[in-house]
Amino acid sequence: MTTNGTPRDRSILKGALAGLLGGLAGAGAKVIAEQIFPPRVQGQTPPPVLFAEQLAGHPLSGAERQAAMQGVHWAFGALAGAVYGILIEYEPTLGAWKGAAFGIALNRITHESLLPKLGLAAPKGQQPTQERISEWVTHAVYGIATDAVRRAARSSL
């Protein structure tokens, strides 16, 4: 895609692929950021595990919990990145946000809205301040990494 974003340069497939690659990189960056600034206290069940347990219909074992957490984290990161890549194809001005706004918006949609409605997280007003700040920061890191890798991948496709 050229910098002018003309319609002949747009490609859903290339945008999705570049975004998917960016989303995987962003998911990795978020894992590292969470090591520095953890969102939950030790022993608190992460939303991906709660989601997997709801799907399974029973509590998961230790190995199953770890696999579920990793699987949901990486799959959601890749999927969100692919959606972002497609959006950028058709609205290139979104890229001016450099990904941080995307990551923060993703946090607001998931951790502050959707997850509480599904019973996978406490309502926004009941979430500990450290958890909310950590999620904002680590989702911004996710978004920045996603956008940077998406841009690099898209320019080479």
UniProtKB/TrEMBL annotation:
Pfam families: DUF1440. InterPro entries: DUF1440. This is DUF1440 domain-containing protein. It comes from Paracidobacterium acidisoli.
